[in-house]
Structure formats: C-alpha cells, structure tokens
Amino acid sequence: MGKLKLSKEQIQQIAVAVLMTALVGFVYFKYFLKPNMESIKENKAKVVDLTGRVDELEKRAKKRERLLIEIEQAETAWQALKAKLPEKQDMPGILKIIDQLTRRHRLQMGSIAPQPISSSELYYEIPFAISVTGSYHDLAMFLEAFGKTERIFHARNLSISPAASTPERPQTSVSASLTLVTFQYKGG
Questions:
Q1: Rounded to whole angstroms, how far apart are CA atoms 167 and 5?
Q2: Structural domain 91-185, CATH architecture
Q3: Angle 88-94-96 (CA atoms, 0-180°, nearest 5)?
Q4: Mean pLDDT, to the nearest integer, of 69-93?
Q5: What is the residue-wise DSSP string for 23-72?
Q6: Where are the domains of the chain?
Q7: Total Cβ atoms within 10 A of residue 109
Q8: How many C-beta atoms lie closer than 10 Å to residue 78's C-beta?
Q9: pTM summary value
Q10: Rg of the chain's alpha carbons, rounded to an integer?
C-alpha cells in the first residue's frame, strides 16, 4: 500500500474539521447531554421516592379502611353490650321483666324483695330475693328465659322444695327461692 500524500492545506482542513467536531462534541456534551443526564437521574430518584410514598399511602389507606371497619364493629358490639349491661338502673323495667316471665311460665310469685346493691370495679350487682311456686318444668323454663333476655340476669342460691298441691294446681308443684341478680354498667 502506498503512502497517501496530503497537501498542507488539506492537512489544515482535516485538523480544523477534527477540532470543530471535537468542539461541537464538547459543547453538545457540556451544555446539552450532561445536564439532561443529571435531570434524568434526578427525575428517576424523584420517581423512586414518589413511588415509595404512594405505596406507603396506599398501605395506610388500606389500614385506615380496616380500622374504620373495626371501629364500626366495636361500636356495634358496644351498643349490644350496653343493652345487656345498661348504664341506668331502671328498677321498674327489671321488675316488669321478672313479672312478665313469671306470668309467661305459669309460676305463682310468692315474694320479690330487692337486696342491697353491691359494687365491683366496672359494674353494680342488683340482686332480688324471689320465691315462686309452680311445676318443675315451668320453673326450668322460667330460669332459661332469663338467659334469653336482652339484659344479663344470673340466678344464685337456688333452693327447690316440694310444694303442696292445690285445687288450682293439682299437678306436682315445687317451691323455689333464689337470688336473681342483674347488672348495671358503672360507665366512664
């Protein structure tokens, strides 16, 4: 292969072209490419940060929805509990329940006497000494009915003894005495 001979003028033109290309490349890199690459890098970092924040907010939103559902369920449970354990004593209402259940289960009320109210940390115990007469089956249904009332009742000190048959009640009868306790929430 032979050597290529270039004139001085051609060498100068090639040198100027190379320098111009290098200058244009330098200016392009310095003033266009490098700032855009830095901007792209910053924007990628922002996207990563914002994506993380969006994920966190989505998690918090889901957690909030679950908490709202739990609060609603707790509120419903609280309302049901308040019905079972009211904040007011309501002595007439309690006596009405006892009277209705006595009549419904064909028992004869011998006596009912309120007892001293006792207190615990969260509630008051409101006891009643009760004596009834009726069939054993009716007595059992009477006691079971208290477990189905909206308010909580608890039978204590149950004593059952045979009762004399009467013309109105020729079947076998029993007399029962018990302490029937209901409860009142102290509140606050």
A1: 148
A2: 2-Layer Sandwich (3.30)
A3: 135
A4: 83
A5: HHHHHHIIIIIHHHHHHHHHHHHHHHHHHHHHHHHHHHHHHHHHHHHHHH
A6: 8-84, 91-185
A7: 14
A8: 10
A9: 0.58
A10: 45
